[in-house]
């Protein structure tokens, strides 16, 4: 573990477990997932418009 983490993070992991280290990373991933879901939804809506014969702008 010491090779992967710096000395400060190694001490934190030993004292508090790994949850405090990974919590910010999990929040970041949650935000990325929400953004990906929005992009997928937009693509699906665009695909629906194109498949119905509507022209797209731009």
The amount of helix comes to over 70%
Coarse morphology: rod-shaped
Number of DSSP helical runs: 2
Q: How does the helix and strand content classify structurally?
A: mainly alpha
Average pLDDT: 80
Tell me the span between the first and last alpha carbons: 51 Å
Point out poorly predicted stretches.
Answer: none
> Order of SSEs, N→C?
HH
Query: What is the CA-atom radius of gyration, in angstroms?
Result: 21 Å
Outline:
Helix content is about 75%, strand content about 0%. The protein is an all-alpha fold. The N and C termini lie far apart (about 50 Å).
SSE blueprint and pairings:
Blueprint: H1 7-16, H2 19-51
Structure overview:
With 58 residues, the chain is mainly α. The chain has a domain at 21-52. It is built from two helices and no strands. The protein has helices spanning 7-16, 19-51. The protein is rod-shaped, with a radius of gyration of 21 Å.
Relevant terms:
58 residues; mainly alpha; rod-shaped
